[in-house]
Fold:
Amino acid sequence: MAAVTVKTRRTFLVIFLFFSLFSSSGQSSFTRQLTVQLNPGWSAPAPPGGDLLHIRAVGDNDTLHFLFCSQGAPTLLLVHTNSSSSSVKVDWTLFLARNTTGSLRVEPESSVLSSTALVFSRLLEYDDINDTASMTSDLFPPYELQNLGWSRVNSSDPFAPLCGSVVNSSGSICLQLSAFESEGRDQSWPRLLHTANSSQLGVWLDGVSPRAARSRFMLELQAVGGAYPLSRVDVHQSIDDEFTPSIFKASHWVSSANGSSEVVGFVRWRSVAFRRSKPALEDATPCRNSAPRPQSSEAAAAASGLIRAFYSNIETFGLNVSFGLAGEPFYNSTRLLSWTLLVGVGSPPVDSFSALVVAIMAVGLGAPVLVLLVGGVWICTRKRAMEQTAAYEPIN
Ligand SMILES: *[C@@H]1O[C@H](CO)[C@@H](O)[C@H](O)[C@H]1NC(C)=O
Ligand SMILES: *[C@@H]1O[C@H](CO)[C@@H](O)[C@H](O)[C@H]1NC(C)=O
Ligand SMILES: *[C@@H]1O[C@H](CO)[C@@H](O)[C@H](O)[C@H]1NC(C)=O
Ligand SMILES: *[C@@H]1O[C@H](CO)[C@@H](O)[C@H](O)[C@H]1NC(C)=O
Ligand SMILES: *[C@@H]1O[C@H](CO)[C@@H](O)[C@H](O)[C@H]1NC(C)=O
Ligand SMILES: *[C@@H]1O[C@H](CO)[C@@H](O)[C@H](O)[C@H]1NC(C)=O
Ligand SMILES: *[C@@H]1O[C@H](CO)[C@@H](O)[C@H](O)[C@H]1NC(C)=O
Ligand SMILES: *[C@@H]1O[C@H](CO)[C@@H](O)[C@H](O)[C@H]1NC(C)=O
Ligand SMILES: *[C@@H]1O[C@H](CO)[C@@H](O)[C@H](O)[C@H]1NC(C)=O
Ligand SMILES: *[C@@H]1O[C@H](CO)[C@@H](O)[C@H](O)[C@H]1NC(C)=O
Structure:
């Protein structure tokens, strides 16, 4: 009995190791070297109006520049270059005046392959009086995120949350950026898969006083691109919810080169937000997005200092992400909403079954097949043996 248990356990282990090797060989080998700089080129204590965080992620022969800025509406700009020595140059006088294009440049200019920016433009609140969660319900005046007072970034902890206090409310909206050297997954839900080619943004609304008991919130995002703006949202369905239980959908807001199917840049999220900061499964609430629509690029540039500084010729698409469906608890139930998204270049990473699940499936499906096979062979040989004995009988 004990011998059998040991043997099965060993079989599990062997299969598990085999699939771990198998499934990890293709990924995770690609890494980037990260360097972080706060307000590059600025020497005085802190520039007035907001900070600029620069993360340089150098690959074999390319570089990703992540620029996260709170001059105006919070903005993440991602520039991909084909050189491992490209750099960011800021003319701070012009940058702070926020009225000139080219005050922030990535050099050499000829090395720039693509760029994408995501502007967090507005927080919208509506009174869902009939609990229909219709995105076109009675809206309160929106919170323009460019007008909030944003916290300062401290160079000793540049990845600390960036929080803006919401007017007439003790609460705040916070954003937290993470950048990665290699592939992996956060410990906390929704446990998005990230790669070295992407960064993650956590967004949460903490303690904002709702203006009605049945308030729900929406977040308006603007994507700005040069040659390839993020113009469509693909919904990715998967039966695999191992890392985000019961959530089977992810949205990929993508740009494509010249209408081809090759994706140049993306924003990806799971269709879920959470009502607590350390959520349990029942704290999940679905989120939805509207279709991306062309927006005024002038408005985006006016709202975000980084957009004005970097882009001259742009196209802008915007969409709203709305939290909660009809019948779900309202914001007032916990006064917290937390949502996570990924911004990167290339195709969005998609979840695949983990080694453990594959091993379990292999054992679960493989064992019965093995039993059938062995059983079949045994029956066949038995039958043949009996036929052979039977064939001799008449002679006897
Ligand atoms: C990129 O780097 C690899 C080695 O890391 C090298 O073999 C290859 O020639 C480089 N490509 C270019 C275009 O420089
Ligand atoms: C930018 O603004 C500054 C003052 O804020 C002004 O002196 C300058 O003329 C403006 N430049 C342009 C090109 O509008
Ligand atoms: C990429 O690198 C090559 C060689 O350094 C350069 O000639 C080219 O202009 C760069 N830019 C793009 C967009 O390919
Ligand atoms: C809520 O329902 C009432 C009664 O059905 C209706 O008169 C009212 O217009 C609805 N309000 C909204 C915002 O849909
Ligand atoms: C940054 O954080 C450190 C330690 O938390 C603190 O001592 C320092 O005063 C902070 N600097 C600024 C500019 O807030
Ligand atoms: C904040 O409160 C003041 C006075 O109570 C009001 O005039 C103003 O519109 C409020 N602002 C927002 C964004 O609700
Ligand atoms: C990340 O980008 C590098 C360079 O463009 C590419 O070689 C690599 O395959 C990408 N990795 C993933 C996981 O997309
Ligand atoms: C939110 O709920 C609390 C009790 O949970 C209640 O006292 C408060 O009035 C509600 N807020 C609004 C805006 O209705
Ligand atoms: C992109 O589209 C333009 C016209 O819209 C066309 O002239 C050009 O050849 C296309 N480029 C590629 C690489 O398909
Ligand atoms: C988001 O929703 C608000 C209110 O319905 C609307 O005014 C705004 O145009 C929407 N934004 C986008 C980008 O669709």
Q: What stands out?
A: The pocket of 2-acetamido-2-deoxy-beta-D-glucopyranose (ligand 4) is lined by residues 129-130, 137-138 (CB under 6 Å). The radius of gyration is 27 Å. Residues 2-26+356-389 form one domain. The chain has five helices and 24 strands.
